[in-house]
Amino acid sequence: MATTEITTGADGVTLEVAAHVATITLDRPHRRNALNYRAYDQLEAAFRMASEDPAVRCVVVTGADPAFCSGDDVGEIMAGPKRVSATPAAAPTATPAAMAALECTKPVIAAVNGAAVGWGMELALFADIRIASEKAKFAELFVKRGLPCDVGGFYRLPAIVGPAKAAELLFTGDVIDAAEALRIGLVTEVTPHAELMPHALALAGRIAANPPLAVQRLKAGLARSAYGDPREIGAWAMGAIRDLMRTDDHKEGVASFMEKRAPVFTGR
C-alpha cells in the first residue's frame, strides 16, 4: 500500500492509495478530528492530490475513531488569535477545502464512523455517497454558534433530504442518529461499526473497477444536474459567516460552548 503523509504525527490528515482507491483520513482523534487551519489546508491538499492522481479512481474519506469530524476546532478558529472575525475585510470566497472536495473529479464516498457535526456534516455532504456506522451522528450545528452553514448545507442538503427537512436541520441544529439519517436519505446504508471501512472500500473497489473516464463523466453529469453554482453559493455563505462572526450572539455561542453552559442569545 502506498501511503502519502499530508502531515507528520497523528495530528492532521493522511492520504493512502491502494488498488486505485484513495483513503483520506482525518487524524486528530484527541480533538475528535476537529479541523484547525492546518488541517483544513491538509484536507484541501489531499483532495487535490487524489483528484489529480491518474492512479486514483475513487476516494473514501473518513475519520480516526471515535469521530468522523466534530467540525471546527472552536478554540482556534472561533476563539483563538487568528479567528475569522479578526481578519481584515476582503471579498469572501468559498472555503478552499470545500471546493477541493466538491470539485474532486473522482467519486467520493464518506465513511461516517462517528460524529459528523458542524463542518463535519458539511464534509459528509460533499461526498457523492454516504455510508454510516451505527455509531454515526449528524448535525448542522452552526446555528448554535450564531452562524449559517457552509456551502454543503445550502448546495447539497436540500437536494438530498428535501427543502423542508433541510430547513429543519439547519434552523434547529438538532442531532440525528444513523437510523434517522438512513430514513431521510442522508445516508444510503448503515453498517455495524467494525464493518464500515471494509464495506466502504469494497464499494469503492467496485466503482474503481469500471472505466475511469466513463465514471468521471458520470460524476460531471451529476454535478451539472445540480441547481446553482457552488462557488457562488460558497462565497455568499462565507460572507454571511464573516458578518455574523462579529455579532454578540456568535460570541455568546462560542463562550457558552467553551464554558459548557446554556447560551443566552439576544439577537445582536
Produce the secondary structure layout:
Layout: E1 2-5, E2 12-18, E3 21-27, H1 37-52, E4 58-63, H2 74-77, H3 96-102, E5 108-112, E6 115-117, H4 119-126, E7 129-133, E8 137-139, H5 151-155, H6 157-161, H7 163-172, E9 176-177, H8 178-183, E10 189-191, H9 196-208, H10 212-225, H11 230-244, H12 248-259
Parallel strand pairs: 3-4, 4-5, 5-7, 6-8, 7-10
Antiparallel strand pairs: 1-2, 2-3, 8-9
Helix pairs in contact: 1-3
Structure overview:
A hairpin with a 6-residue loop joins β1 (2-5) and β2 (12-18). It is globular, with a radius of gyration of 18 Å. It has twelve helices and ten strands. The protein has a seven-stranded mixed beta sheet with strand order 1-2-3-4-5-7-10, with helices on both faces. Strands 6-8-9 form a three-stranded mixed beta sheet. α1 runs parallel beside α3. With 268 residues, the protein is of the alpha/beta class. The relative contact order is 0.14.
Q: Summary?
A:
This protein is α/β, with parallel strands linked by helices and 268 residues long.
